[in-house]
Amino acid sequence: MLLTITTTHSPATDLGYLLYKHPQKLQSVDLAVGKAHIFYPEATEERCTVALLLDIDPIELIRGKANDSFALSHYVNDRPYVASSFMSVALATAFSTAMNGTCRDKPELVDVKLPLEVTLAVASVRGGETLIRRLFEPLGYTLELENYPLDVTVPEWGDSKYFLLKLQHTLRLKDLLSHLYVLMPVLDNDKHYFVNKQEIEKLMDKGKDWLSAHPEKELITKRYLKNIHHLTRQAFEVLMREELPDEEEEMEEENEIVKVVKQKRVSLHYQRLQTVFEKLVASNSKRVLDLGCGEGKLLQLLLRENQFEEILGMDVSHRSLEIAAERLRFDRLPAHVRQRISLIQGSLTYKDKRLQGFDAAALVEVIEHLDLNRLQALEQSVFGFARPKLVLLTTPNAEYNQKYETLIEGKFRHEDHRFEWTRTEFETWTQHITDVFGYEAELFTVGEVDEQVGASSQGVVFKRKV
User: Fold this and answer.
1) What b-and-e string marks burial along 315-325, b requiring 16 or more CB atoms within 10 Å of the CB?
2) 62-66, 182-186, 342-346, 438-442: lowest mean pLDDT where?
3) What pLDDT does 241 receive?
4) CA–CA distance, 252 with 234 (Å, rounded to integer)
5) Cys staple from 361: which of 175, 228, 289, 429, with CB 3.0 to 4.6 Å?
6) 446 beta partners
7) Is the peptide bond before 396 cis (omega within 30 degrees of 0)?
């Protein structure tokens, strides 16, 4: 699939400064399912064209995908060959600087309206020429469209859903890129990756300067979010707020300020993750386990740190692993990043060879979800069998529960907790681990410490002696 952008602005080679891509160099960027190549078929003072060519790997495309009701649907499709959400991802990856309105060498170019011509071959359009015009003409584009026949040898079969698009307009480059980013998957009415709340944020970000005023904003929003009702409803609410009168807008801004102030009180959950993350970084570990990884919040922190060359997340819940994959945007990670991280399903109460050979393991608020009679099995599988050099573990401090006004006395903090230990009980258990499995222990706390009852969470760093 190929997209070209041409300008006759003088000098036309200013396009290279805006895109942060040198006209005399072939450049490539990694995508989760292949590569995007950027090159210039022509680059003179009078006319400059940049091309974005997607090289999709059909095998990589289907890896990790769930089974479809049509068994061959992952193999018999047009996804590697037509411009769609793949092209949107490629645009955002290859031209992120231009899309964000940044130009280091010639910053004055960002707000210059350039004569631009876009050629997109081939686009899959579910809605025909009428839909294309409904989407682009209100934004000021002049269109030339060519509808490909289903089969040139059998003209009576009629036209296909595939089009060659040529768009012309004089506008800022960043506006052009935001229009293409949003509208290409709208044409196709499909996306190659999981759609969740983050898509609303991306839609509002890329459409902030034009979407609310577009006469087809409802159609665009629905199709961009794959007609998922609850996401579409939330997006409409955001768009409606953007159309509020000035007085109401001021109230909305005040509410947002209040939200920001509240958010400055960092949650205890985040403090736990940050504490464990910092200790893992300080340990110089390279191969790390997140045992009971849940929805992948710690994995997300680990993946941002290049120190961690291999990251493995394990959880007993298949649904939690699906959410973790969505959070990590697994299907959109560049190949060199994706090879650093894996997700597996498994139980910590069984010995698992996949967990052996790692430098460190994290168990953040995990053990309290086990029945006490199964805790010994976890001890054997983690400390006796997997035996990482370092184990970081946190669990609630039961003594601190009295500080929670809404917590009924004698109740655990979470309905799935099977036990919650006092500080003395936790210290006794850590001593048991050091005595039996050849580790040494260093206790730590997470959260504000009360003189009488301690901190909300208690933790330990186990270091293997041999």
Assistant:
1) beeeebbbbbb
2) 62-66
3) 62
4) 16
5) 289
6) 457
7) no
Residue that the structure tokens 């079969």 belong to: 157
What is the arithmetic mean of pLDDT over 256-276? 65
Length of the chain: 466
- pLDDT of 39 reads 95
Q: How many CB atoms are located within 10 Å of the residue 238 CB?
A: 15
Site of tokens 């895109």: 19
- pTM score, whole prediction: 0.53
Distance between CA atoms of residues 403 and 407, nearest Å: 8
Q: What percent of the chain has pLDDT over 90?
A: 52
Does 195 score more than 80 pLDDT?
no
- Mean pLDDT, the chain, as a whole number? 86
Residue 192: both structure tokens together: 């190659």
If DSSP codes are grouped into helix, strand and coil, which group holds residue 373? helix
Q: What is the DSSP string of 264-289?
A: TS--HHHHHHHHHHHHHHHTT-SEEE
| Structure confidence at residue 16 (pLDDT) | 92
Q: For residues 5 and 20, what is the distance between their CA atoms, to the nearest angstrom?
A: 14
- Give the pairing type, strands 27-31 and 34-43: antiparallel
For 446, phi then psi, to 5°, come to -130, 130
Contact between residue 434 and residue 425 where contact means Cβ atoms under 8 Å apart: no
